Amino acid sequence: MTQSKIRPRARRILVVRNDKLGDFMLAWPALACLKQAQPDNHIGVLVPSYTAPLAHACPWVDEVILDPGPQADRTAQRQLLARMREGGFDALLTLFSTPRIGWLGWRAGIARRMAPATKWAQVFYNHRIMQRRSRSRKPEYQYNLELAEALLEQLGQTRPESLAPPYWPLPATARDIQRNRLAEELALDNSRPWVFLHAGNGGSAANLAPAQYAALAATIDRQASSDRRPFWLLTAGPGEEAVTQRLRTTLHEQGVDAALVPRCQNLEDFALSLIAADLFIAGSTGPLHIAGCLNIPTAGFYPAKRSSTPLRWQTCNAAERRLAFCPPSGADSETDMSRIDLSAAAYAIHELLAQQG
């Protein structure tokens, strides 16, 4: 057998992305890369309890380890260290580096430890990649992919030839199941386009005000033909229900058909419900990036400051299925979402929705 036909041996890899939901969803392309390069690779993830339901749902993940967080007591930190040691991992890939995680990886005896070359946390890693993410010259998920590809090279494995959306592939029947469920619960017309709108921001980047979202939806509604008027399904995160309820009332007053998506049992159920959407609209939030992983058409609203630009936090759906809007560049205006041209945004969203048939 020639050397080129010998498959590199499978490895046990622990990937760390232990911050917010959107950040974790933008790690899915990197997870897909590691798993598709060698299907026998064992991919573990270290995540907080909040994102754990989606980590368990991720098709590229074999093991989920909960991070109790930096504020946890010494007992919890020792338990985490013991779990990392017991995992027998060949490599640690930290997508967002902190000294605590670097120290734990070193103490756990993981021989190959890779992370961005960021501040002093890098002293705990023996493989570091210079990225300068603060310059925001690439999408976050591409920075993550670069790290995954660098690790594969270190492990003697080859990057998969075909790596493309959706990064959360679901059975073809999943969309019909979710649409039929919502149609029954909310008495919806399944033949009309459904636009999901998430007006909250979960304390994340600046977002449109509810009044702006109402104006946007009303403008899109007026542009549609009578038989293609969208039905608006409003989603809400924890503590955002009252704002969403007021938005629905405002839309009804303007003659726009809208309803609240029923409360889901857990985060995974909420995420799966998004596959019913013909288009998803939100600020730069976790739900927007769930939709991106599902390759649903998206329209995202972003501030213009360098750390939060549409380029840096681009969704990972196909290019032709995503739109992004932000205020014009200029001093003291990067986070002024009122400067976004909603008429132009409404027209572009209407056109993208029309393309979905």
UniProtKB/TrEMBL annotation:
Keyword terms of this UniProt record: Glycosyltransferase, Transferase
Pfam short name (any one): Glyco_transf_9
Keyword Nuclease annotated: no
Keyword GTP-binding attached: no
Transmembrane segments: none
InterPro entries registered for this protein in UniProt: Glyco_trans_9 (IPR002201), LPS_LOS_Heptosyltrfase (IPR051199)
Name of the featured protein: ADP-heptose--LPS heptosyltransferase II
Naturally occurring in which organism (per UniProt): Litchfieldella qijiaojingensis
